[in-house]
Design a protein that fits this description.
The structure is a homotetramer.
Chain A (H helix, E strand, L loop, with lengths): L7 H9 L1 H8 L2 H8 L4 H27 L4 H28 L4 H6 L4 H16 L2 H25 L6 H8 L1 H22 L9 H25 L1
Helix pairs in contact in A: 2-11, 4-5, 4-7, 4-8, 4-11, 5-10, 7-8, 7-11, 8-9, 8-10, 8-11
GO cellular component, one term (chains A, B, C, D): cytosol
EC number (chains A, B, C, D): 3.5.99.2
Function (chains A, B, C, D): Catalyzes an amino-pyrimidine hydrolysis reaction at the C5' of the pyrimidine moiety of thiamine compounds, a reaction that is part of a thiamine salvage pathway.
Chain lengths: 227, 227, 227, 227
């Protein structure tokens, strides 16, 4: 199955990161969700850390509002913050409750170093650079989950992780990915010119994407290691 | 008519700023909306600048998401960003269209120095300090418009500015003011302790509120001066 | 007398801003220093506000350290912060003392709106964008003072402002201008490519320079208006 | 040997972090420098990563300039940035050259996750909070190296790491620690009031110190693990 079409920047970054991308998008944690062999305990550890991740990921998307230059950029970034804070995190609390993980445990969870490294790296990409640097660091999570969801939605058989897969394979999330992908393409065209790959900043922006991709792989691994 | 109850911090700041507060909340521009004597041209100038103001005010509320420490803080700040970007600014474009001011004119409007000074001061309050510094600089606009709306809703007779007054006197906006007031009280209790006025930072946080109040008065004045 | 050579970006920005640049670099305040007709009181008002300006200007140069990507960028920015904070501001206190303006008066000086608008605009340029946006907003002050100093050093006759002129016409300050100009050229080449003027961001970065240039003119005017 | 006196905040934080502090200040890496058993390769790995660390640590101290409210705060922070960028990093390049590690290898070094997690956590502490949050996250490195240097200076026998020990045990570095400690005490007194431990923010600020302390221990461990 080929990767979904989330725009030109994503396609170019994904291609540039080759083996790093596969190490994330086809991580044993992901394949374990697909075929149902992922230990339940690993999934729970992941969920708890993912809640803390979402807090800081929402903060980073809020920084994207601060760094927007057009109404379209502001609208997409603001809608993403609101969706993360006022919907996705509540959904997370609900999912965890269904698994016997209380909201108290979520809030009290000590942040793992892998989690810390990832979210603070993304935030600092935005502080150090402009919106392109920040979006390149935000993209692997948003769009990678879309790609993983779409693939597992097509490939997975009977697995206890069908709900997780359905959420990211679903039309709503896939539409988010296409919107964010289009916003990234427009933001890069505005600041780097086209073709992106000819811009002097292309390699450094791509390094942001690659580092965030590696940190995503580290995040899956943390789920396995903690279990 | 007494001021609406938007919480303890607002009441204390408002009292501390005495004459500065009245110079804003009872500015000739405001009284001109109340009794209908405000020149239409002044109102149009104000609306155009207010659009640009909202862009940067939304960016500052997004910074409040970045600086939140609790889910309640994040939720209120994120909802405010979304309301500003995905509702209030569209409403603004619509209102301006009804007055013959095109969206193009809004986007192309050169920012007045009074506008610049105000919005960038608020943003920098957040960069320099913590969430309390930022909220103290955000409060005069949000809550002052609530107070002005409520008073004019009660006092205004027949005036061409009835729509503006109705928007800010209305239940929806008054509820926003109570929510934001409660969030401010909680944020200050968490960081300064209670009573707020006994905290070593109280005077400096109050200076943030006072400066923003003066810059709000300057914003009304700009509307008159440009006309 | 032609403008000093502080690099390619400065030359291009200066040319693009034509009348705005002259309104700053040949402002009546400047010409009054040259021919000695500037009222002493105006100069004193300027000095007091300039002290507060330097505080926030140093903060903005510190943000340039935060946003640096190379050791050369960091070194130039860090040296500038240190020079501003640990030398220029002390010099300022000393100059003011010689004019009977106490350090207490400097610290207690209420910031004028023109001052506020300028410094916070520069800071926000750095928060919103990358190092190029920030440097474009920092350049008119640093390099403009160099150009004004050099011209007045050559043209001024007997004037009570000879010390001010000598400071900015002097070899030390002119060397700073050449270093900062070279750093700006390198930072733009790295991020925008060459020629700068062909980059998609060139016009927006130039707008940063133009806005800061206008705010500089407003700063001189404030000195005259307060007197 | 008792800990050196770097002020009240440091003493209180250090005490509060008990076992976490010892796990950092008496880490096997440290004891290996003391008795000379630390493998040379581990030290080299540490030095390379420490160079990258210093880049981002200097950026975080620059953020402290941005967040300063008094001239004393600005002066100490600006002097620290300048010392890090224009002295300590050059010294580092020199030390590494003496060990056969070229400047090219330093610049090209891929940042380890432990390094990334630490420096970006410190930076984000400053973005999220005020100067106290940032200083609490900066303190374990600056003052911990002072304590370790002082102890090893007194305890170490013949060891190949005598130069490293002498640098941090020396009068210059110990004076820096006392200055930074005094600045921290003043910054906390200004914002939290005294006694610090009675302030509502004390526990959260102490958590910043504790997290940075754990990340410092992780940094030593990385040196051992990479070797």
């Amino acid at each position: 199955m080929s990767a979904p079409d989330y725009g030109r920047a994503f396609a170019a970054w994904r291609r540039a990161c080759g083996a790093d991308w596969d190490a994330y998008a086809r991580h044993p944690f992901v394949e374990g969700m697909r075929d149902g062999t992922l230990p339940r305990e690993a999934f729970h550890h992941y969920l708890v850390q993912d809640y803390v991740f979402l807090v800081h990921f929402a903060r980073a998307w809020a920084l994207a509002v601060v760094k927007s230059e057009t109404m379209e950029e502001m609208r997409t970034a603001a809608a993403t913050v609101d969706a993360l804070v006022n919907m996705e995190m509540s959904l997370h609390v609900q999912t965890c409750a269904g698994l016997g993980i209380s909201e108290d445990r979520l809030f009290a969870a000590p942040e793992s170093p892998a989690n810390l490294a990832y979210t603070r790296y993304v935030m600092d990409a935005g502080i150090a650079g402009d919106l392109c640097d920040l979006l390149a660091a935000l993209a692997p999570c948003v769009l990678g989950y879309g790609e993983i969801g779409a693939r597992l939605g097509a490939e997975a058989g009977d697995t206890p992780y069908a709900d997780w897969i359905a959420a990211y394979a679903g039309d709503d999330y896939q539409a988010v990915c296409r919107d964010v992908g289009a916003m990234i393409d427009a933001a890069l065209a505005r600041r780097l010119g086209t073709p992106f790959t000819a811009a002097p900043r292309w390699d450094r922006v791509t390094e942001r994407f690659r580092m965030a991709t590696r940190l995503e792989a580290g995040f899956w691994q943390m789920g396995l290691d903690l279990a």
